[in-house]
Design goal:
Layout lengths: L4 E2 L5 E2 L13 H8 L3 E2 L4 E2 L6 E7 L2 E6 L9 H13 L6 E6 L12 H7 L3
Parallel strand pairs: 6-7
Antiparallel strand pairs: 1-2, 2-5, 3-4, 5-6
């Protein structure tokens, strides 16, 4: 399992969406909250789908870099709204920023084994 990388400004960065950073006590509640954000088309959470590329924590601020399954997918604003609602419930987070990116492009290989099994992807 990868560990969080320290950045020059002292923030913590989760390098991959593969479970890295789970050992940081501040990261687990954030990841758990984001697991409540469900892609409405696939019915699977954005963590298991591999849509969350990066989580950065700086003090009371959380920045989530994420992608969508396809570039033309219209659910970006809905996903961001759900992320904001999920993280608003957590103590110690006063600011949330989301950044949608398409590089690297999402692919089914980014999904967790549970998501692959649920969708029949092998």
């Amino acid at each position: 399992m990868d560990e969080l990388a320290d950045t020059k400004d002292g923030s913590l960065r989760e390098p991959e969406a593969d479970g890295a950073g789970d050992d940081d006590p501040r990261m687990k509640p954030i990841r758990d909250a984001l697991m409540d954000v469900i892609d409405p088309e696939l019915g699977i959470n954005i963590i298991d789908l591999g849509l969350v590329y990066d989580i950065t924590i700086e003090g009371d601020s959380v920045h989530v870099t994420y992608t969508l399954t396809t570039m033309g997918c219209p659910i970006g604003p809905l996903i961001e709204s759900q992320m904001r609602q999920a993280l608003d419930k957590l103590d110690g987070i006063d600011r949330f920023e989301a950044e949608m990116v398409f590089s690297p492009p999402w692919s089914p290989e980014m999904m967790s084994e549970e998501a692959k099994a649920a969708l029949g992807v092998f």
